[in-house]
Amino acid sequence: MSNLIIREVTQDDAPALSRICLLTADAGVSAEVLHDHKELPGLVYAVPYVNLPTTWGFVLDDKSKNKVVGYILGSVDTRAYEQHAAQDWWPPLVEKYSSVTPTKPADDRYINLLKNMHVAPDSNIAFSPAHMHIDILEDYQGRGWGRKLITTAIDHLKERGLQGVWLGLDPRNENARKFYERLGFEQIKDAPDVNQLGIKFSKYR
């Protein structure tokens, strides 16, 4: 693993972000068989972060294979991110997929989501304006790179004047929950469900 590096994300990484998102979209495992339109998970949860303002991101790059194998992405201002996405990102996608008749439930869910995208709970924004997503391909998990990506992100956000960050968790992904809790993430106070986790950087372990 000595050929792995963490570097800042670029727009050229968009195809890799989309691929990784698909291969981890089913509670941490591949969602390939669930989709005919395999680009949909990435269009919602990854690719916007190299196309919209207020965003930041880093990738785990395997130089020996010349491919990106993980990422951590987010926004320093979630409400502004949501506004930019509502104006510039979701409408073209809604138009693109308006003529699509999905044959798989997962595609149907994502296409409906494009039309009515969820927004962050007020409790999360009160905790921190910044949010994040992290995904690493299965072959590269369990080797400490998740912690290194989060450490890189936290250092970056501290430099931007942030004191915390939060994420939404797939309730089926218990391994991810345990990982975040080991680092010091906790359920956000007054969040609408138990799958909203945040960390104040002073409590990062």
From N to C, what is the helix and strand string? EHHEEHHHEHEHEE
Task: Please give the radius of gyration in angstroms.
Answer: 16 Å
Strand content: 15-25%
Shape: globular
Low-pLDDT parts are: none
Give helix % range.
25-40%
Which CATH architecture would you pick?
3-Layer(aba) Sandwich
CATH class: Alpha Beta
The CATH H-level superfamily is Gcn5-related N-acetyltransferase (GNAT)
**How many alpha or pi helices?**
7
Average pLDDT figure: 97
What structural class is derived from the secondary structure elements?
alpha+beta
Oligomer: single chain
What is the total domain count? 1
Sheet of most strands:
4 strands, antiparallel
Annotation keywords:
alpha+beta, three-stranded antiparallel β-sheet, 20% strand, single chain, 7 helices, 205 residues, Aminopeptidase
Explain this structure.
The chain has 205 residues and is an alpha+beta fold. The protein has one domain (4-203): Aminopeptidase (3-Layer(aba) Sandwich). The protein is built from 7 helices and 7 strands. The chain has helices spanning 14-24, 40-45, 78-97, 105-115, 122-127, 145-159, 174-183, and strands at 4-8, 55-62, 67-75, 131-136, 164-168, 186-187, 196-200. Strands 1-2-3-4 form a 4-stranded antiparallel β-sheet, sandwiched between helices. A hairpin with a 4-residue loop joins strand 2 and strand 3 (67-75). The longest helix is centred in the middle third of the chain and has 20 residues, at 78-97. The protein is globular, with a radius of gyration of 16 Å. The model has no long low-confidence stretch (mean pLDDT 97). Residues 4-205 form the N-acetyltransferase domain. GO terms for molecular function: acyltransferase activity, transferring groups other than amino-acyl groups; beta-N-acetylglucosaminidase activity. InterPro entries: Acyl_CoA_acyltransferase (IPR016181), Glycosyl_Hydrolase_84 (IPR051822), GNAT_dom (IPR000182). This is Acyl-CoA N-acyltransferase. Keywords: Acyltransferase, Transferase.
